[in-house]
Amino acid sequence: MGPTVTSRVAIATCAEMPELDGEGRLLLDALCALAIPAEPVIWTEPPVAGWDAYDLVVLRSTWDYTFLPARFLEWTRSIGARLLNAPDVVAWNADKRYLFDLAHAGIATIPTEHLTRGAAFIPPPGRFVLKPAVAAGSRGAAVFDDARHDAAREHAAALHADGHDVLLQPYLDAVDGAEAETALVFLDGRLSHAMRKGPLLALDLPPPDGLFRQEQMSAVDEPAADAVQLALRVHAHVEQRFGRPLYARVDVLRDAAGAPAVLELELIEPSLFLDFAPGSAQALARAIAARLPR
Predict the structure, then answer these.
(1) Which residues are tagged catalytic?
(2) Is the confidence at residue 151, as pLDDT, over 60?
(3) What class, spelled out in words, does domain 9-94+286-290 have in CATH?
(4) Which is nearest to 151 in space by CA: 138, 142, 163, 162?
């Protein structure tokens, strides 16, 4: 028996993208092809019939949530078990200090330091990245080097003054290499496809014009075996702790020793690059259909 004929799905988006982005529309079309009523709904604008009118609410292009993190998390809790991904995994993943949890579990991550508010910040040698712990689309992230220590201190102080926790990471040369950053996309527990991401940050780069920086992407037919194994381990950790997510993206980069390490784990509103992977929108739609009431 399939989903009930009245099953409805909301694809949660933001006010700046009321009709979804390209991959969101692919998902919408794939759900419609399965005869599942679905529509985009702006998460900050409750629908007339209320959120209870939907059997499932799928997070997609809610890219403004980092401007309203407390409100967003409260909203996810109000949706409860009908939200995909689930509110508990969203709350955990909303703060990039989840990297410390992964490292504590023995999973290789990019070296990350939490800069305590009010403590003296001594910039490290070489190139490094400062970023807010709660952010999306590279907003607030910036690269510095030995010649820009004063600017780095000012940036950290400005982030702290805005109420952000600040993370410090090395800028790894692998970002600019042939393999670059690899994004491994999981749909309903299975590795679906992988993408190569070009560098998003550079010295003296201005802030993004909008919700996110545009990414330079290319499909990866055969991602490196060690990167795949790391991503599988990350996904298994998430599934063991929170249950199987509908979707996940593990961004992997090689560290200074050449070993793969987790740069980011995206479980809220990541680009899943469905338009680069034929059949992936349909696979995601089938996974959503399988979670609808019977």
Answers:
(1) 213, 249, 266
(2) yes
(3) alpha beta
(4) 142
